[in-house]
Amino acid sequence: KPVLATLGFTEKSSDDFAPEEGFESLFNGRDLTGWGFRPTTEQMLKSRERWQSRDPNAPAWPVVKDPVSFEGKHVTPEGRYAAINGRLVVKTPPEGRKIQQLWTTRSFDKDFTLKLEFRATPNADSGVFIREPQLQCRDYVLAGPYKSLQKYRPQDWNELVVDVKDGVARCTCNGEVLEEAFKVPSSGPIGLEGDRGQMEYRHIRIRINE
To answer: Vertex 154, ends 149 and 156: CA angle to 5°?
Structure first.
């Protein structure tokens, strides 16, 4: 079903979703305005080097040197990320696996609540970056790491909620706790990772809790 939707055979139009009072959309459903590539951080460069040094089959991990904005664009170069009928789609790369990150052009230094829905193809591996640290967002039943979830819906929409307060995030999927005390920096953007498989995101919105 997710792949058929991406190819345009089903779900040919976006739904009429509107954020709850107090929330603002981070993805307008039409294009990638507000999103872009950010230069690869030193921490990620070190992770890339360690991974590739110990695993000859490690996936490609392109390095970004300069920031790139996708204001008004519907798709990123090479087509990895695309706005399709209200969904921000992270497509399967031709290589099978490839590490990339799409970031909000804004950074967030106040406490916030982030909500979004995601839908994964079997064994898909993605992630949501919370001011940089990554919360794994995957087809949990096959790819883990949260395989014991009772409410996760394979190949269907699932809701992720992240509450950040005083440098700690509480993360849930369909109301079940993924991380009770996920440490995050004092400021940073929101990001979406591409690794393997296809992942779709929609209804991405945030509320600043002052």
So the answer is: 120
Q: How far apart are CA 145 and CA 159, in angstroms?
A: 17
Residue whose tokens read 């995030």: 169
Is the whole-model pTM more than 0.85?
yes
Strands 35-37 and 68-69 turn out to be: antiparallel
CB 32 within 8 A of CB 83: yes
Q: How many CB atoms lie within 10 A of CB 13?
A: 7
Catalogue all structural domains in the chain, each as residue range(s) with its CATH number.
2-13+21-208 (2.60.120.560)
Average pLDDT over residues 168-174: 99
Compute the average pLDDT of residues 179-201. 98
Q: Where are the beta strands (DSSP E) in 131-183?
A: 134-138, 158-165, 168-173, 176-183
| Run of H or E including 25 | strand 24-25
Hey, CA dihedral for 173, 174, 175, 176, is it positive or negative? negative
Report the 10 Å Cβ neighbour count for 8.
Answer: 10
- The residue with tokens 């979703």 is 17
